[in-house]
Amino acid sequence: MGCFRINTSNLPALWKFPTQNQNPRTKTIISFSSPSYSQTEDQKSKLYTVNFKTLSACKLGIARYPDFEYNAKGGAGTGSATEVTESNSNGDVLVSFDIGRLYIPPLESATTKFLGLPLPPFLKIDIVPEFFSGSINPESGQVDLEFKAEFWFSVGSIYKAPPLLVKTVLTSEESKGTMRSGRGERLDKQGKCRLVGVATVDPIDDFLINSFLGLPTECLADLNAIISFSSS
After folding, report:
1. In percent, how much of the chain has pLDDT > 90?
2. Count of CB atoms situated within 10 Å of the CB of 46
3. Please, are residues 175 and 127 in contact by the beta-carbon 8 Å criterion?
4. What is the C-alpha to C-alpha distance for residues 163 and 204, in angstroms, rounded to an integer?
5. Domain of life of the organism in this record (predicted)?
C-alpha cells in the first residue's frame, strides 16, 4: 500500500518487520507515564514522527446489541515516537499522539450501518479523544495503545446526552471482557494493522441512555488502521 514510509538508512536496527511464523510474546502495555521507562537523554535515541490513519471495515459494539458497521476512513492523527534503549524494553518504541490533531469520524448516517441499514440522519455520535499513547514493537509488529475518549450522543438539535467515557487499550493482540471480546492483527510491512479494545462503560446522569444501553455494560472497538513513521 506504500503508506509505511521509513528511511531504513537512518534506522539500521530498529525497524525490523515481523515474520509470519513468529511466536507471540507476552503482552506488555506501556505508556509514557510508566515508571519502568525513565525519560533521560541517555536512555532514548532519535525522535521520530508517527502517523495514524483509520480505514473502512471497522466495527463498534456495545452491550449485547449487534455490532455497528463503521467506516472510519478519513480519521488521522500525528505524534512522536522514541526508541527505548533500556535492557528491559524488548525493542519497544514509545508513541504519544497529539490529541489536538487526532480526528476520528463520528458515527452517523454517512459512516455507520446497523443491521445493514444506515443510521437515521438525525442520530449522531461524536468521538472526542482525550488520550492516545502507548508502545509499538517494530520487530514483532505488536501494538498496545492506551485510548481514552468521550462519546457524545445527540438527536438533531432536540437532545444531547452527557458524554460516555470510554477507556481501553487498543491492541493488535486479544482483548477480552466478560461480555465482549476481539482479536487484532499485528503490523504488516505496509504498516496496516487491526486494533481491538474492550472497555467498561459506566452509567451517566441520563436515565434514557442508561436504560437503553443497560449501563454499566461493555463496548468493543475494532479498527482497521495504518501506522507509519518518518524522521522528525
Report:
1. 73
2. 12
3. no
4. 8
5. Eukaryota
